[in-house]
Amino acid sequence: MLGGAVIGGASAGAMTVGCSGEDDVDVGELRLATGPAGAVYRRIGGGLAGLIADRFPDATVTTVPSRASTDNIRMLSRGDADLGLSSLDAVIGPDGRPPDGIAALCRLYDSYLHLVVLRDTPVWSVADLDGMRVSYGARNSGTEFTTHRLVDLAGVRVDAVRLDQAESAEALDSGDIHAAFSLTGIPTPAISELAAEREIRFVAMEEQAGALADAFPGPYIPATIPATVYEGVRATPTVAVPNVLLARSDLDDDVVRAVTETVFTRAGELTTDRPDAPAVPQAWQINVRTGISTGSIPLHPGAREWFRAQKR
Q1: Which CATH architecture has domain 111-241?
Q2: Rounded-to-integer distance, Cα 64 and Cα 62, Å
């Protein structure tokens, strides 16, 4: 586990906060597992942690950098984190259920699978990756999980390396790899920065989106990365995967209810630049209508109570 950042709070003891008119809630510490450098998970996780710290002004709220989805799930299972971000497909097991001890607070936003190459690289389809050196994303990330599935279904043999988003962008720029997969919200910082410096393009994955949806019903949605997202890059068909905010199942119901309320009532603050952080455009997607849609991952009782209250 990488070192975390304390967003705010007291150094010891519990704090008390009213929870939507309910009995007071005692909270000592919340640890939110985020993602790697250059990733939307790192930015949106930090933003959500800041909102939670405001909601619990005397608590200690800590962001825990990670390799993303699978790493975050493992930290939750080990008790090394209380909250964590994950792509929906990575948290659903072979039986269609999440690991024991993990529940969902909500769906947040959708990630898009990017297959990035420099403009003059002779890769025009997934089949063209055969024999090439390709980044699968960081080890234990959602990118690695989804890319494994996609490449296996395509029957392509590649020289796979594990690099996070920032490292993948650097390796593309230097020619150390031919292509990079990245499952992330749009726009993602590492790809935006690369597009500003080099001519890049995305490889279409319309066929692979259908194959994933057929082989693993539920988490995969055919989608298009719009032409307006990255400088000089055309619209490209791909596959999208929802992202969810997870919690340990034993996290106090009142705490989870207050965190869920904070996400949906204040996430709009993340869409504009703040003194301590740039805007997180993906926060525009956070809304109650889609937030309850966590697939086969059961809602934490505290989150379920909050969503039910919105229907009254």
Answers
A1: 3-Layer(aba) Sandwich (3.40)
A2: 6
With contact defined as beta carbons under 8 Å apart, do 153 and 208 qualify? yes
Among candidates 199, 239, 207, which has minimal Cα distance to 222?
A: 239
Q: Where are the domains of the chain?
A: 5-109+243-310, 111-241
For residue 20, what pLDDT is reported?
53
Phi, psi of 194 (to 5 degrees): -65, -40
Q: 5-109+243-310 and 111-241: same fold?
A: yes
CATH 3.90.1150.10 at 5-109+243-310, yes or no? no
Residues 53/9, Cβ–Cβ less than 8 Å:
yes
Output the six-digit token pair for 188: 């993602």
In order along the chain (312 residues), what is the average pLDDT of each group of 10 residues? 56 39 65 91 94 86 94 96 96 87 97 97 98 95 95 97 95 98 93 96 97 94 96 96 97 94 94 86 94 96 96 78
Distance CA 136, CA 143 (A): 6
| 18: its two tokens | 């009213």
> In b/e form, how buried is each residue of 106-133, taking b as 16+ CB within 10 angstroms?
bbbbbbbbbbbbbeebebeebebbeebb
Report which residue type is found at 282.
Answer: Q
Handedness of CA 103, 295, 51, 6 (dihedral sign): positive
Calculate the alpha carbon distances from 58 to 12, 14, 202 in Å.
Answer: 9, 8, 45
CA 298-28-74 angle, 5° bins:
45
For 248, phi then psi, to 5°, come to -65, 140
Residue with tokens 């279409």: 204
Output the furthest CA–CA distance in the chain (Å, rounded).
62
Q: What pLDDT sits at residue 28?
A: 73
